[in-house]
Design brief:
Elements lengths: L11 E6 L23 H13 L4 E4 L25 H9 L6 E5 L7 H15 L3 E4 L6 H6 L8 H19 L7 E4 L4 E3 L9 E2 L4 E2 L14 E5 L3 H10 L2 E4 L4 H17 L8 E11 L2 H12 L4 H11 L27 H11 L3 H11 L3 E6 H13 L5 E5 L5 H16 L12 H5 L6
Helix pairs in contact: 2-3, 3-5, 5-6, 6-7, 9-11, 12-13
The protein binds flavin mononucleotide.
Length: 444
């Protein structure tokens, strides 16, 4: 393989899976799609094997701790997202069925305590031999708040204030043990060296956590930390503590702007900008020909009910009621306080640039939310990825497979070989830990 891209700087690729695995809202209805991924572990073994054969960096399990829309179950009977395995439990089991692929999951800072998270992900890092990643988003949906004794979410800025302190506590707890703290000395009876286990004694605004953690230092030094979002708060927090930032960017200009902001912020904090990997989402429909790819998209698109799509778009905007707006009218600029997949600007822009009505924007959002979407042949997809990668928009991508296992299989068997032939993507895993695979600085 001859390439101007050094191995340490090759593209990083994650696959985003949640609930049943199908990213498209109606993906489960496709004749080939898996329908029982929400509780059939065997499916996940197959998904992981496919992603690992494609040499992807990591399998990422997104999560919500609620049935979203659960107030009106009759209205969401077409949603496959009502059934999902708890992600860390799932990944702990998957660790035994995989060797190289990173295993990352969301645990939202609004609904956990830092000690639980530090302990769970340090354990996963041990169990998987150094392949754990924690997506430390703030979460979530109104329905999640209601499952945790609250009526509403905290405002965005309060959620991030708590999240920042939360992450500091988790990272502090992960430093409890020095690498050689455990002595296991049967002769002297000394199991550990007390000078090498540190008590955190954190007393902050949101948390009082004494420590130390009761799990030893994990194989990666600490698990990989991921932050997902797009706001200033995400940039500030991600550039401070994250190894990886997942983000939704609908087009090249927006992605470049976000990428630049993250890298500048990291530099200002004295971090090597290469140590924060920015990975925008990519929804893709790939075929051997463009017509075949378009047919794959249309097969899903035609099933979408516009009213249903408009309601879903209201949720993506943070809990906005769009029922009074004309689906044939323009996309309105609105946003609410619940989880926002992005500000209203992105959807307004998608509408304006494509000359789409509110209804058409909503239907596209069913396939890609506000992520970038590519429909094309192998060269189209590889060209798109290379263009973003080489032009300051992405260090890699978070793949959003509309239909499982088809979309992931298409990607791994058609696009990965092309990226490898261009020298943009690995042909073998670089190491056994996720940190090594991502090309991040090693920690002891
Ligand atoms: C790729 C990606 C994955 C995400 N995964 C989750 C998730 O699993 N659970 C969750 O509650 N939010 C998730 N989010 C939402 C973010 O946490 C965030 O709320 C949203 O992107 C809005 O960003 P902001 O908070 O920076 O405005 C994800 C976002 C992105 C872009």
């Amino acid at each position: 393989m001859c390439s101007d891209v050094s191995p340490a700087k090759r593209m990083n690729l994650a696959v985003f899976l949640t609930a049943d695995g199908n990213y498209h809202h109606l993906g489960w209805r496709h004749p080939d799609a898996v329908v029982d991924g929400g509780s059939n572990f065997q499916r996940w073994i197959e998904f992981a094997a496919m992603a690992e054969a494609g040499k992807l960096d990591m399998l990422f399990v997104a999560d919500q701790i609620a049935i979203v829309g659960g107030d009106e179950l009759e209205a969401i009977t077409n949603s496959s997202k009502v059934n999902r395995l708890e992600p860390v439990t799932l990944l702990s089991a998957l660790a035994s069925h995989t060797r190289n692929i990173g295993l990352a999951a969301t645990c939202a800072t609004s609904y956990w305590e830092p000690y639980n998270i530090a302990r769970m992900f340090a354990s996963l890092d041990h169990i998987s031999g150094g392949r754990a990643g924690w997506n430390c988003v703030t979460g979530g949906q109104l329905e999640e708040a209601q499952n945790f004794s609250r009526e509403r979410h905290e405002p965005h800025e309060v959620r991030y204030e708590r999240a920042n302190e939360f992450a500091d506590v988790v990272m502090g707890l992960w430093n409890s043990f020095e690498p050689d703290a455990l002595l296991y000395n049967k002769a002297t009876g000394q199991f550990f060296d007390p000078a090498k286990i540190h008590t955190l004694n954190h007393r902050g605004k949101h948390f009082q956590v004494k420590g130390p953690l009761n799990v030893s230092r994990s194989p990666q030094g600490r698990p990989i930390v991921i932050q997902a979002g797009g706001s200033d708060a995400t940039v500030a927090m991600g550039s401070r503590i994250a190894d990886v930032i997942f983000t939704a960017q609908a087009d090249l200009a927006a992605a470049q702007e976000f990428y630049g902001r993250v890298k500048d912020a990291a530099r200002r904090r004295g971090r090597d900008p290469d140590s924060v990997k920015v990975m925008p989402g990519l929804s893709l429909f790939v075929g051997r020909t463009r017509d075949e790819a378009r047919a794959k998209f249309d097969a899903l698109h035609h099933m979408v009910d516009v009213r249903d799509a408009v309601e879903g778009l209201g949720r993506l905007l943070g809990g906005v009621d769009l029922s009074g707006y004309d689906p044939d009218g323009p996309m309105p600029a609105l946003e609410g306080n619940d989880l926002r997949m992005s500000g209203p600007g992105t959807f307004v822009r998608i509408g304006r640039e494509n000359n789409y009505t509110l209804g058409q924007v909503a239907v596209q959002a069913k396939a890609a939310r506000n992520h970038c979407m590519v429909i094309g042949d192998v060269m189209d997809v590889a060209n798109h990825m290379e263009h973003w990668f080489r032009n300051g928009a992405a260090d890699g991508f978070n793949l959003l497979p509309a239909i499982m296992p088809n979309t992931l299989r298409d990607f791994c068997t058609m696009v990965v070989p092309e990226l490898q032939a261009r020298g943009l993507f690995r042909t073998e895993y670089e190491g056994t830990t996720l940190r090594q695979v991502l090309g991040l600085p090693q920690m002891v």
